[in-house]
Specification:
The protein is α+β, with helices and mostly antiparallel strands and 77 residues long. The protein has two helices and three strands. A three-stranded antiparallel beta sheet has the order 1-2-3, with helices on one face.
């Protein structure tokens, strides 16, 4: 990870919380380093937008019990 030359252009990459970030097309190593640091700051200050709370075991169990009472109720013939 870091900055390296790829062909005629410089590229950077870094990881944050398991996610890999990369950009390329910089003319100098200094530009790539500066852009990497700016991108790191931007990524670290972002708040997670796609957080989905998972249902607890209690919620799932209660939902199944409600379903079971309807599905397997004693039917009078």
């Amino acid at each position: 990870m870091g900055c390296y030359r790829e062909g005629r252009v410089w590229r950077y990459e870094f990881q944050f919380q398991g996610q890999r970030y990369t950009r390329s097309g910089f003319k100098t190593k200094g530009e790539a380093v500066a852009a990497r640091e700016a991108h790191r700051k931007e990524v670290k200050t972002q708040t997670p937008t796609d957080t989905v709370s998972e249902p607890s075991f209690r919620d799932v169990a209660n939902e199944y019990l409600d379903y079971s009472q309807r599905r397997f109720s004693d039917k009078e013939l």
